[in-house]
């Protein structure tokens, strides 16, 4: 495993522990086995990243590694991970219990006495160009844990309430003495809550929350860009026993359009015209974002790839109220099949051209003369 741990995570040697953590989270998200089922390569990358992070996130191991490289890690428990369970065990705080979405964004992760904030969720939204142009309301269906309405999140059966944990007397932690040592650990009976439920709520089984199917409407602003992430505060899962809910993150994907290409707030549209149309000028029908057709004047002598902008026919800018343009790009098509009459005319045209060389060609020939 001769590989540089900094390189594995894509950070500089001087990276702060925050930067290292961020880089690892990003990689773990991307190569997480849940997201890449059956992909061996992703699995390897994921394990590698976990190994690198296990060293670089530990001040002592990091110092030894910085000083002596892999040699310096001999005798420590730094090693490759055999299974995903190992990784989740080692980085429980980052993965928040094994699910990639749980606590990944919230960053609460607080165990012990504080009730956990609801998990943040992620969804994907696909839009077409027209929806981006106008803005749109999208309905998303998803299953998320919500506060149980029967016990109002306490987890206790109707008419009862959670009682103080007899094992830790409500402290959430217990002290164990072993010889000279005294060890404080989370109470095994109440798992740090300080309260226990004697008769659990029948609806949620004592969890205080249960998965519900819900529909969330998401308002997508006009001009949104591909890859943008919208955050819906508080629309994630409900928190434990009254803790705040998580957020819902919506990743925006924009479907490619058959004839339009997006360039920021502008839209590029290629329009083919003939040689004669380019030389003599013409009017062409061009579709707009909203499905209308406008007539665009192509001036006499338009060159290949020249752009005729239609101002205000692009996307609304997310930043302000300005609108982009529809850029009509002219593509001059040289005829490949001609009738004999067409060819005859073109030959005649070429005859005249011999006497009147076009300005561009003249420049070229002038330059050629200078070369020799
Ligand atoms: Zn309940
Ligand atoms: Zn307890």
Descriptive overview:
There is one protein chain. The chain has 372 residues and is α+β, with helices and mostly antiparallel strands. Among the domains are: 5-95, DnaJ domain (Helix Hairpins), CATH 1.10.287.110; 260-333, HSP40/DNAj peptide-binding domain; 340-371, no CATH class. It has 10 helices and 15 strands. Strands 10-11-15-14 form a 4-stranded mixed sheet. The longest helix is centred in the first third of the chain and has 17 residues, at 40-56. The model is unreliable at 95-112 (pLDDT under 50). The chain binds zinc ion (2 copies). The site of one zinc ion has 8 residues, from loops.
Top CATH class of the domain at 5-95 = Mainly Alpha
What best-fitting shape do the alpha-carbon axes yield? elongated
Bound molecules: zinc ion
| Uncertain parts | 95-112
CATH homologous superfamily assignment of the domain at 5-95: DnaJ domain
Total E-strand runs: 15
In CATH, the topology of the domain at 5-95 is named Helix Hairpins
Order of helices and strands: HHHHHHEHEEEEEEEEEEHEEEEHH
What is the C-alpha radius of gyration, as a whole number of Å? 33 Å
Q: Assign a percent range to the helix content.
A: 25-40%
Strand order of the largest sheet: 10-11-15-14
Main β-sheet description: 4 strands, mixed
Mean pLDDT, as a whole number? 84
Question: What structural category do the secondary elements indicate?
Answer: alpha+beta
Number of helices: 10
Distance between the termini: 61 Å
């Amino acid at each position: 495993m001769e590989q540089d741990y900094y390189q594995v995570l894509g950070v500089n040697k001087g990276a702060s522990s925050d930067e290292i953590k961020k880089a690892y989270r990003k990689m773990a998200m991307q190569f997480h086995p849940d997201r890449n089922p059956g992909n061996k390569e992703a699995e390897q990358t994921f394990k590698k990243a976990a190994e690198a992070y296990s060293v670089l996130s530990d001040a002592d191991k990091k110092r030894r590694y910085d000083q002596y490289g892999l040699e310096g890690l001999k005798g420590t428990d730094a090693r490759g991970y055999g299974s995903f369970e190992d990784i989740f065990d080692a980085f429980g705080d980052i993965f928040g219990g094994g699910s990639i979405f749980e606590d990944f964004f919230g960053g609460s992760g607080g165990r012990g006495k504080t009730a956990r904030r609801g998990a943040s969720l992620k969804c994907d939204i696909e839009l077409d160009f027209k929806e981006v142009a106008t803005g749109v309301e999208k309905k998303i269906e998803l299953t998320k844990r919500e506060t149980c309405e029967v016990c109002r999140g306490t987890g206790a059966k109707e008419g009862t309430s959670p009682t103080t944990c007899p094992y830790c007397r409500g402290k959430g932690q217990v002290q164990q003495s072993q010889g000279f040592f005294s060890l404080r650990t989370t109470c095994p009976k109440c798992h740090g809550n300080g309260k226990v439920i004697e008769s659990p709520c029948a609806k949620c089984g004592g969890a205080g929350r249960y998965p519900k199917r819900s529909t969330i409407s998401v308002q997508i602003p006009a001009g949104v860009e591909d890859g943008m992430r919208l955050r819906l505060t508080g629309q994630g899962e409900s928190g434990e026993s009254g803790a705040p809910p998580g957020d819902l993150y919506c990743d925006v994907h924009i479907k490619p359009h058959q004839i339009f290409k997006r360039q920021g707030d502008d839209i590029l549209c290629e329009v083919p015209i003939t040689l004669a149309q380019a030389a003599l000028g013409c009017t062409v029908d061009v579709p707009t974002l909203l499905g209308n057709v406008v007539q665009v004047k192509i001036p006499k002598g338009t060159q290949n790839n020249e752009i005729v902008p239609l101002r205000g026919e692009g996307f609304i800018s997310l930043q302000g109220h300005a609108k982009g343009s529809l850029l009509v790009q002219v593509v001059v098509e040289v005829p490949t099949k001609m009738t004999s009459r067409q060819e005859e005319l073109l030959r005649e045209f070429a005859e005249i051209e011999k006497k009147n060389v076009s300005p561009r060609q003249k420049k070229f020939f002038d330059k050629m003369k200078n070369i020799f």
